[in-house]
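Researcher: Here's the sequence for the chain we discussed earlier.
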Amino acid sequence: MSATPVTKGTNSLLSSRTGTFCFLQEVLGSSIAGVPVKKPAKNAPFVLHILAALNVDLKAFKMAIYGFLVSAPISHYLTGTLQKAFAGRTGTAAKIGQLLANSLIISPITSAVFLASMAVINGAKTVDDIVKTVKAGFFSVLRVSWVVSPVTMVFAQKFVPLELWVPFFSTVQFALGTFFNTRVKQQLRIADEKKPGQDKKDDDKHE
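Model: Thanks. This is the structure I predict for it:
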């Protein structure tokens, strides 16, 4: 059994879907976490005011570009390579091999690419900044991937047709990405809310 051939049109569809997912992931994360985007200046174009009202900022568009140009192509290539490597093999050993290859090869690659991309989107200016970001979050992201990936892989092996693997895993990534994005934003919001109180306590101590 082999994967269905992927045409350029299908590639474009996958990239568009992933780009849209990444865009929504950022917007939903901010909305659910209760983190409003920065209000544009009064003399800013009207469209920016509309986007701000919808809780959409520049980062959401950067996430869409990441999904379209980075995440989707890499996901398609790695998933396709995994499928080809185990094409026609449906035994228990082959399924275990898929799980190991996914956990030990694909997950580390996608985790590193994700963190590097997030570093750039969040303003990293140098290669050193990107490397530091990847090193700081690599094993945390990888641990989550090692828990989730085997479960989703087993589910895909049993219930999802090969030609639907890429959109299936993209949907899972969207759900997880939205969850973690929301949690990070909530933690940052709570930290920001505590700062004024902490600063006031520090001032009282100095008095």
